[in-house]
Amino acid sequence: xxxxxxxxxxxxxxxxxxxxxxxxxxxxxxxxxxxxxxxxxxxxxxxxxxxxxxxxxxxxxxxxxxxxxxxxxxxxxxxxxxxxxxxxxxxxxxxxxxxxxxxxxxxxxxxxxxxxxxxxxxxxxxxxxxxxxxxxxxxxxxxxxxxxxxxxxxxxx
Length: 157
Prior knowledge:
By secondary structure, the protein is an alpha+beta fold. The protein has helices at 5-18, 24-38, 74-82, 135-150; strands at residues 44-51, 54-62, 68-70, 86-88, 106-113, 119-127.
């Protein structure tokens, strides 16, 4: 699927923003700010990083969030345990959903993998609207994650 103009532009903005900076923490902080600024109808955008059998909160934009999520729990933990992106139209219908913000109604989560296939964590975006995210959004955000990963020195395991 080719990316639509919005995501082509957004991912180009990310490349420019990260140009000359390889620090993983700085880059994920700026990436979450860019998403929060540019995506419409969202209430949270950020990262969780994998430590052992749990995800820990990383840089984000939005209301305070859950600090730790077990692998396999909620949408983020499911993305890690299955190794697949999650596109959830109604989080209240998702088995085991963790309500960090009761206002969130839909969610998209993209797992982040290094070149060796090691999961580093997830990119997580929430919306207060049911069915906010489409397959087009998912493809654009998966490419966003690829740009971030290739532009950053990844944390050591």
